[in-house]
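Researcher: Go.
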Amino acid sequence: MIWIMLAAIVVVFIVGYWFMTADTRKANDSLASLLKIKPVYIDSMLLEMGKRQSQMFIRSISGGYAEEIRKAAYVVFIYHTFIKDPSEENVVRWRNILVRAHLPPQLSSEHAELALFYFAELDIEPFELAQFRRDYNETYNQIHLV
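Model: Structure:
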């Protein structure tokens, strides 16, 4: 009898956890499927954001609106190329991920502002991010006019 009660408690906890994390899993899965990456890349970013910003980030993309998910993809890009690993190989890798997802690889000021908002707890210097954006666009996204 005790085993049945323990099993019932375990099932209640598992189902409760599953329902409580449904939005997070849905948001991670939709963003990961757009970028064709593993959700762990997004999970690590959410941990860096802090609780409040990560909840806002998840809420913004859990609705499934394509435009919000595309904007979130650039936040992931900035996190992995500016905050985590700004090496040239990593920037090229993540740029290719954007291109493979059929997203324009140019970073706009709107993308930078979103990243500054979501990573407010990291105290990112806006000037440094603007410089990164400028250098990235000049180096990797030059449009050659003939």
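Model: DSSP finds eight helices and no strands in the chain.
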